Amino acid sequence: MTSRYFLTSLAEALLRERFASPATVQRVQQGRLKHLLQHAARHSPFNGRRIQPAGSPLEQLQRIRPVDVREMMDNFPDTVCGAEITLTEARAAAQSEPGKVARVRDRWMVSQTSGTTGEPGYFLNDHRSVEIQRGVVFARTFRDRLAWKHVRRFIRRRYRMAFVVTRLSGCISTQTCLLGKQQSGRMAEIRLFPSEDPIAEIVRGLNEYQPDYVHGYASMLELLAYQADDGALKIRPEFISSGSEGFSKAGRAAVERVFAPAVVTSQYGSTECSVLGNECRAGQMHVNSDYVILEGVDENDQLVPLGVKSHQTLLTNLVNLFQPIIRFRLTDSISWQTTPCPCGSPLPTIQLEGRSDEMLWLERGPSDFVSCSPPSLQAQMYPVAGIRQWQLIQTQRNHLRIRFVKSPGVDGATVAADIRQNFRKYLDLERLGTLVEVTPEEVDMIPRTARGQKLKQIISEVGAPPRKERSS
Ligand SMILES: [Zn+2]
């Protein structure tokens, strides 16, 4: 059954973007912020210590010390409002069986991430918060498709939606897919095509399903475009969206060319808040500032002026009242655009410099290369307990070195064995199990790259093979 929160927020998000002024959007944001700060100060001890209730909500917000994933995880029970939940419990619940949304005590959804800093995080949402964010994502992603001329085509035939994302049900994009599946009703059909599966299997599934809409990681969509170029993939979606990572220039161009005239759009979301922004038909990234506050800051956490690239971004999720996320550090760099977007939306726009992990190509035989997308590789690390930070480096074509920093009190050899086992399972699916060497290596720290905070989590020192040699 479709939830009331989902439908209300879908309608609100759609109507506000079509008809409201920028001033109205700002008023909504300030109202939500005021409520969030009052609620968090009262119900979550961790935030009670951070918030000083004096001045306007915005002044209060800007006095709050930013928080990173490690500090939130170290204070986990105190970050939650109105329930006693430990990090151990959340972590255990996140390892739910595939096909079932991960929940703590069958009630609160738990999503996991290795974040933009390579440190694992677990985030909780209650039913209200999950459904509001789902409604907003749906409204703002499909903003131009929810018009009568598009919708009427699907009254006779259900709209077929394909999600090419990991099968691990602790990941937010997979959870969006699974929740949609339970509630899609008569208008739409939703199917998951696990990104860990061999590409030939994904292609076969998509050919048979013939989706109208495809959602996937940007690197996965790029791969599918090459499959279509080679004549293996034969689908004609009308709408394509990417999430979790940004497109490379070449990747975006390939997807647009191969699947033309399909509309291609990017979603900007994170595990801590799935509704950060959406790209409009004019190609601009609009921030959903009625549901989220993004602050671009410099190295000293001072706000940067309009038009200037930030060092980091502080995220405040205005919807999640169960585990408030207030001034949470994202390593993404943004800059606020100063000119209004020609599409007419009242939502402000940013230029986003996001995550930049690399696609890996492994060799199965002469001229037979298998591609592994960064999110699929990251997903293999999620079930490993006791890790503070990690980084994967492809040092030779078929050699993966995985450096990790373990949590205190954990046995490093056990962590290494878990990593080996997870990758073995994943590589076996691609018939690479015996061909690729995986070397976990315990280290004391993983140095950041030159820009200070950004940790490249997946690095290839060997690069991609020439296009003509890639079979998949
Ligand atoms: Zn626009």
Question: What do you see in this structure?
Answer:
By secondary structure, the chain is of the alpha/beta class. It has three domains: 4-131 and 272-353, 3-Layer(aba) Sandwich (Rossmann fold); 158-268, 3-Layer(aba) Sandwich (Rossmann fold), CATH 3.40.50.980; 360-465, ANL, C-terminal domain (GMP Synthetase, Chain A, domain 3, 2-Layer Sandwich), CATH 3.30.300.30. Helix content is 34%, strand content 24%. It has helices spanning 4-19, 22-43, 45-50, 57-63, 69-74, 76-79, 87-94, 127-141, 148-151, 172-183, 199-209, 218-229, 249-258, 374-381, 412-429, and strands at 103-104, 108-113, 121-125, 159-164, 188-192, 213-217, 239-243, 263-270, 273-279, 285-287, 292-297, 312-317, 328-330, 333-336, 349-353, 360-365, 368-372, 387-396, 399-406, 437-442, 458-460. The strands form five sheets. It has a nine-stranded mixed beta sheet with strand order 5-4-6-7-8-9-10-15-14, with helices on both faces. Strands 20-19-18-21 form a four-stranded mixed beta sheet, covered by helices on one side. Helix 12 packs across helix 13 (249-258). Zinc ion binds at residues 280, 282, 284, 286, 341, 343, 345.
Main attributes of the structure:
472 residues, alpha/beta, Rossmann fold, 3 domains, nine-stranded mixed beta sheet, 34% helix, globular, binds zinc ion
Task: Tell me briefly what this model is.
This protein has 472 residues and is of the alpha/beta class. The chain contains 15 helices and 21 strands.
